[in-house]
Write a structure and sequence with these properties.
Largest sheet: 6 strands, mixed
Number of strands: 8
Shape: globular
CATH topology of the domain at 15-135 and 158-190 and 246-256: Rossmann fold
Protein name: Methyltransferase type 11 domain-containing protein
CATH architecture of the domain at 15-135 and 158-190 and 246-256: 3-Layer(aba) Sandwich
InterPro entries: Methyltransf_11 (IPR013216), SAM-dependent_MTases_sf (IPR029063)
Strand order of the largest sheet: 2-1-3-4-8-5
GO molecular function, one term: S-adenosylmethionine-dependent methyltransferase activity
Pfam family, one: Methyltransf_11
Order of helices and strands: HHHEEHEHEHHHEEHHHEE
Length: about 260
């Protein structure tokens, strides 16, 4: 991957360019947040790595946030602590500093996955909690029919779940995360029953995979999806998803115990 971007983004996506509306579309969903809180157990001090605009940070604990992107740090709401400018691979903390640590939708951005996870384990006494997507399960989502290039990008970027678990150790559990129909966190699968939302360019920019597609691929996606929505073809094949209260797709919570 490339070196850090101008705004400090350390991964392959430039959040200085695409992240301006991130906080508007990526609001933490309370049902997903409850799973993360349960995984953190009774930790009083929590490290959030790749913290972004602060989604899913618990507000009833002492949280230390790390985020390399200036654009993301600037979008953190006032009730959350400012984030430290640092990267996962070089955490500026002593061994065992935190009761628990967490990272959500971040590991696919790290330049060195193993180093970042090892650093989280080094500074954490208790559970290490990782929310990410399983690249082997992305095709459960109807989007692969309309934007195969976007799914291919995500499959290439998300590290395999066994690779993450192998680094974190034998006492690692993988929890499927059911996605609610009215999910407030606007990642791609959150719109499984609301396909019209993915015709909004700003909503798509809140999912970094779209920033890797060229204009022709995006135009083709918009044309095909809009046509099938207007004709009823999408609903004929996928309309049951509009009534499905939860979708169990690629989203996973990986919980590693020391």
């Amino acid at each position: 991957m490339s070196a850090r971007h101008q705004d400090g983004s350390a991964g392959d996506a430039d959040y200085g360019r695409i992240g301006g509306g991130y906080a508007r579309f990526r609001q933490p969903d309370p049902r997903i947040a409850a799973m993360i809180v349960a995984a953190l157990e009774d930790a009083e001090s929590v490290l959030n790595v790749g913290a972004g605009a602060g989604s899913y940070e618990p507000t009833d604990r002492a949280v230390t946030a790390v985020e390399p992107s200036a654009s993301m740090r600037a979008q953190r709401p006032a009730h959350l602590p400012p984030a430290i400018d640092a990267v996962a691979e070089r955490l500026p903390f002593e061994d065992g500093r935190f009761d628990a640590s967490m990272t959500t939708f971040s590991v696919h951005q790290w330049r060195d996955l193993e180093a970042g996870l090892a650093e989280m384990r080094r500074v954490t006494r208790g559970p290490v909690v990782v929310m990410t997507c399983d690249p082997d399960e992305l095709e459960r989502f109807w989007l692969h029919r309309y934007a195969p290039a976007a799914i291919a990008v995500e499959a290439r970027r998300y590290p395999p779940i066994p690779r993450i678990a192998r680094v974190l150790g034998a006492r690692t559990e993988v929890w499927p995360v059911p996605i609610p129909l009215d999910c407030t966190d606007g990642f791609n699968e959150a719109y499984y029953g609301r396909p019209e939302r993915l015709l909004d360019p700003e909503a798509r920019l809140a999912c970094s995979a779209w920033s890797f597609l060229d204009a022709a691929a995006i135009a083709d996606f918009e044309t095909r999806l809009r046509r099938d929505l207007e004709s009823g073809a999408w609903d004929a094949e996928h309309g049951h998803w509009r009534r499905q209260p939860f979708f169990e797709g690629s989203l996973k919570l990986i919980v590693a115990h020391p």
